[in-house]
Design brief:
Shape: globular
Bound molecules: threonylcarbamoyladenylate, magnesium ion
Largest sheet: 11 strands, mixed
Strand order of the largest sheet: 1-8-2-3-7-4-6-5-9-10-11
Order of helices and strands: EHEEHEHHEHEHEHEEEHEEHEEHEHE
Structural class: alpha/beta
């Protein structure tokens, strides 16, 4: 397939936005920027179009998709009830990096819901994403625009690397501000955090009071047991490099990694660690948490490009957005951790 590259820098690039909207209306699939990660979009109401997403990504069929909207009215036909909790959260965090799971109507095709009686909905903040949804007049189903299993794409180049030749078009736009996928909360029954993101647990609690945290957020889901969010059970975000997560302070981390100084060993570390390390380094942000979310997925891809065999990753603090960084890293490491 010949993949068109369409540059859209802002919502003022009307020609590009209309071109993308036309492709989507005709049942095509297009990688588009959002504030979290790039998404691979299709008309959420067209099961055949959505099926092409699964094929292009190599995504397991039992993993449902998030539906993206550009105003709250678009959500209403898709859900049985836009609940009070949903309204309160949307008032505070939409448009933005928060996905809400609600009971769905029959309008949502089986390909989107993967057989569940719920649907995940998000109103993205990125103005190009919102303009594309608006111009197409369609809710857009969009998972992250990477090959299934590899790190999520935070730049147009990442999408081109993974999906060129597999999709109708890739929108070439700026890098994603947030850098990690949206927070996912289920509002069916007691509110339950399924995937941490830039909207933090404390921010959710300020609106909803107590919320549950699904066990898959911090630990490996048990094999053969149903999981609330199917995506959490797969080995995810994983580069070819074997990642080992090291939970420790700075001094212990540096001396441990230096003791493992063999061919192909890298440190996936904070900028502050570099001085003491004797192995090659790839940095993802700072030890105070800044830059970690934005830098993690690009750093995982960089390890592969450099041919790293093993990377010892310095574990983030679990405070605030750190919980989301940890949740992605522990999956990139296939739950292989060392506590010092
Ligand atoms: O930030 C994001 O959310 C990005 C951008 C493109 O919007 N999208 C994204 O989609 O991360 P994806 O498909 O890579 O991750 C969606 C996650 C998966 O873990 C999936 O299992 C879960 O949300 N999910 C989707 N619908 C669900 C549902 N009805 N019930 C439970 N989990 C659901
Ligand atoms: Mg994904």
């Amino acid at each position: 397939m010949n993949t068109r590259h369409i540059t859209i820098n802002s919502k003022a690039d009307k020609e590009g936005i209309l071109e993308v909207a036309e492709i989507l209306k005709r049942g095509g699939i297009v990688a588009i920027p959002t504030e979290t990660v790039y998404g691979l979009a299709a008309n959420a109401l067209d099961g055949a179009a959505v099926a092409k997403i699964f094929e292009a990504k190599g995504r397991p069929q039992d993993n449902p998709l998030i539906v993206h909207i550009s105003n709250i009215e678009m959500a209403k036909p898709l859900v049985n009830e836009f609940t009070k909790s949903a309204k309160d959260l949307s008032d505070k965090f939409w448009p933005g990096p928060l996905t809400m799971i609600l009971e769905r109507t029959d309008l949502v095709p089986q390909e989107v819901s993967a057989g569940l009686n719920t649907v995940a909905i998000r109103y993205p903040k990125n103005e190009v994403a919102a303009a594309i949804i608006e111009a197409s007049g369609l809710p857009l189903a969009a998972p992250s625009a990477n090959l299934s299993g590899s790190p999520s794409p935070t730049t147009a180049e990442h999408c081109i690397k993974d999906l060129d030749g597999r999709v109708d078009a890739i929108v070439v736009s700026g890098d994603c501000e947030v850098g990690l996928e949206s927070t996912v909360i289920s509002l069916c029954g007691t509110p339950r955090l399924l995937r941490p993101g830039a909207v933090t647990v404390n921010q959710l609690r300020e609106v909803l009071g107590e919320i549950e945290i699904d066990s898959a957020v911090l630990a490996e889901p048990e094999k053969n047991k149903p999981v609330a969010s199917p995506g959490m059970k797969y080995k995810h975000y994983a580069p070819k490099t074997k990642v080992i997560l090291v939970e420790s302070g700075r001094e212990e981390y540096i001396s441990y990694v230096n003791s493992q100084n063999h061919e192909g060993v890298y440190a996936l570390c904070f900028a502050e660690d570099v001085m003491g390390l004797e192995v090659p380094t790839v940095c993802y942000g700072h030890s105070d948490g800044s830059g970690q979310a934005e830098g993690l997925f690009a750093a995982l891809r960089e390890l592969d490009e450099k041919g790293a065999k093993i990377a010892y990753a310095h574990s983030p603090s679990l405070e605030g957005v750190g919980l989301a960084v940890y949740n992605r890293l522990i999956r990139a490491a296939a739950f292989c951790t060392i506590k010092l």
